[in-house]
Recover the amino acids of this structure.
């Protein structure tokens, strides 16, 4: 048997072992199956329906000239049982609050709020059930904690969310979660970073340029917000401007599995191999522009949420960075920007790099923190919050 054939066979065996018992259905298919048996429960009697997690980023990715100027969603559908995430073989479900975020709904009636969390999937506590997710663990020490994190949000979507909601809540502390893998610089060549996409969207730019700009999402009922969001999320989508130079994911399951067999995908997964070599500064001029805008976003956040007396900046490394034994090239520039804008830094790269087995804080097939990783993150953040007088 030739080496090539042996590798393909070994790849197939590894793929079977990695994904045995794994629910490989796409989230839309899972949500559709749940809809057929959906009934409001006594725990959530006002739930409106079932949906996969809706991502505002899918709207941001549209070509700017075709972007809607009527509404820019900042969250998923409110008051919905939501198919959330699957990095361990079983789809996680959650019930969103009245504005489409991951919170116990009654927290919106509490004022003032102790803590507001802003960020992407790491802030949202993705792929870990309550009460073991990052925001839930912080809530054990600071009960009035609202999580405005949203999967696939980048810095400008996060800023818009903060301006739209948080300044009405009068938070004492803001925890800003930053992920080095895609916030400013995409980890995979050919993909636009989050901020690089978001800075072209007309509504998101209005948040940054106009301190009083709001979409008045805060004033809408869950039913009204759902109706408006669904209109945007289900509208026919023109081609996206933000194309990738990498090969797109094949939608046909049989063809996709064949591709993964021939490209040794499963062996790469097992070995945590990179798809492409990291070349983090492909466009140094653009990177400097993005860093400057990121600094402006952090500065304006502090100016506009005046009630917060402490701002924490949580730096999250990419899993691949920990494997490479060297920090991301934008690691120090980003931390410098955070400190220059008055943020206290919680450096999870430094924390994880000191651990004998940093990968134990991730699921085998996932890129987000597992329960242990989210507990470590909450512990580090809570240690910084606990020194604030009155907290």
């Amino acid at each position: 048997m030739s080496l090539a054939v042996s590798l393909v066979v070994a790849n197939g065996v590894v793929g079977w072992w990695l994904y045995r018992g794994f629910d490989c259905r796409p989230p839309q298919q899972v949500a559709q199956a749940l809809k057929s048996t959906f009934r409001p429960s006594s725990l959530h009697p006002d739930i409106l329906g079932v949906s996969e997690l809706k991502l505002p980023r899918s709207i941001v990715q549209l070509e700017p000239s075709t972007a809607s100027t009527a509404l820019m969603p900042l969250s998923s559908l409110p008051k919905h049982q939501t198919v959330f995430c699957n990095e361990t073989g079983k789809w996680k479900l959650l019930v969103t609050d009245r504005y489409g975020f991951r919170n116990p709904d009654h927290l919106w009636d509490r004022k003032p709020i102790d803590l507001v969390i802003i960020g992407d999937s790491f802030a949202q506590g993705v792929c870990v059930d309550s009460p073991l997710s990052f925001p839930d663990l912080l809530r054990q020490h600071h009960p009035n904690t609202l999580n405005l994190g949203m999967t696939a949000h980048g810095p400008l979507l996060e800023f818009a969310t903060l301006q739209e909601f948080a300044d009405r809540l009068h938070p004492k502390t803001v925890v800003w979660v930053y992920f080095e893998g895609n916030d400013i610089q995409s980890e995979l060549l050919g993909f636009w970073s989050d901020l690089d996409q978001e800075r072209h969207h007309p509504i998101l730019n209005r948040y940054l340029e106009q301190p009083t700009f709001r979409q008045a999402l805060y004033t809408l009922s869950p039913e009204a917000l759902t109706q408006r969001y669904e209109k945007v999320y289900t509208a026919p989508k023109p081609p996206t401007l933000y194309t990738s130079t990498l090969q797109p994911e094949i939608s046909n399951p049989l063809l996709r599995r064949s591709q993964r067999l021939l490209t040794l995908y499963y062996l790469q997964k097992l070995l945590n191999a990179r798809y492409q070599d990291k070349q983090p500064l492909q466009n140094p001029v653009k990177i400097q522009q993005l860093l400057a805008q990121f600094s402006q976003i952090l500065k304006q956040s502090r100016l506009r949420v005046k009630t917060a007396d402490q701002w924490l900046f949580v730096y999250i490394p990419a899993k691949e960075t920990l494997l490479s034994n060297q920090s991301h090239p934008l690691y120090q520039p980003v931390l410098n920007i955070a400190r220059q804008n008055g943020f206290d830094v919680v450096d999870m790269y430094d924390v994880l790099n000191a651990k004998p087995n940093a990968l134990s804080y991730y699921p085998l097939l996932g890129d987000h923190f597992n329960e242990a990783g989210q507990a470590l993150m909450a512990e580090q953040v809570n240690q910084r919050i606990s020194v604030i007088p009155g907290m």
In short: The chain has two domains: 1-37+250-278, 38-246+279-385. The chain is about 40% helix and 10% strand. Strands lie at 49-52, 80-85, 92-95, 115-118, 145-147, 173-179, 310-316, 344-347. The longest strand covers residues 173-179.
